Amino acid sequence: MSAQYVPVLLTFAFAAVMAGAIVGLSAVLGRGKLVHKRKLEPYESGMLLIDASRKRVSVKFFTVAMVFIVFDVEVAFLYPWAVSVKPLLAEGNTLVLWDGLIFLLLVTIGYVYLWREGAFDWAKRGSEQ
């Protein structure tokens, strides 16, 4: 075995011993399991459940979540672009400006499409149930 791998193997061995020691100490020193009727309920808030815990959820909530994720990711791409555009414009590279404007145009087209489809019309969404 090469001597250059000894520190790596020692690190792995130390990590394994520490993980085993922590798990073992928690099993020995930790409290026993306390099982109460309240602990077996879906929510441990101390309040009685109003209705069934497993009920159907409307697809509208998933639609709202997906729209948020899509626009959130698109906006997250704007930050690195904005940081890199100023030095590139100083060099005379205007292509990066047009790329950003096209990206914003596509985001705007998506936003207008969702708006026309009624994805943001909350009053209409609430009355459809």
From TrEMBL:
Pfam families per record: Oxidored_q4 (PF00507)
UniProt cross-references to InterPro entries, sorted A to Z: NAD(P)H_OxRDtase_bac/plastid (IPR023043), NADH_UbQ/plastoQ_OxRdtase_su3 (IPR000440), NDAH_ubi_oxred_su3_sf (IPR038430)
Stretches that traverse the bilayer: 6-29, 61-83, 95-115
Source organism, top-level taxon: Bacteria
Subcellular location as annotated: Cell membrane; Membrane
Bilayer topology: Multi-pass membrane protein
EC class of the enzyme, as a word: translocase
EC number: 7.1.1.-
Catalytic activity: a quinone + NADH + 5 H(+)(in) = a quinol + NAD(+) + 4 H(+)(out)
Methyltransferase among keywords: no
GO cellular component term of the entry, any: plasma membrane
Keywords: Cell membrane, Membrane, NAD, Quinone, Translocase, Transmembrane, Transmembrane helix, Transport, Ubiquinone
Keyword Plastid set for record: no
Principal location listed in the UniProt entry: membrane
GO molecular function ontology, one term from the record: NADH dehydrogenase (ubiquinone) activity
PANTHER family: NADH-QUINONE OXIDOREDUCTASE SUBUNIT A (PTHR11058:SF22), NADH-UBIQUINONE OXIDOREDUCTASE CHAIN 3 (PTHR11058)
Function, in words: NDH-1 shuttles electrons from NADH, via FMN and iron-sulfur (Fe-S) centers, to quinones in the respiratory chain. The immediate electron acceptor for the enzyme in this species is believed to be ubiquinone. Couples the redox reaction to proton translocation (for every two electrons transferred, four hydrogen ions are translocated across the cytoplasmic membrane), and thus conserves the redox energy in a proton gradient.
The protein's assembly and partners: NDH-1 is composed of 14 different subunits. Subunits NuoA, H, J, K, L, M, N constitute the membrane sector of the complex.
Protein family membership: Belongs to the complex I subunit 3 family.
Name of the molecule in the record: NADH-quinone oxidoreductase subunit A
Source organism: Thermoanaerobaculum aquaticum
Organism lineage: Bacteria, Pseudomonadati, Acidobacteriota, Thermoanaerobaculia, Thermoanaerobaculales
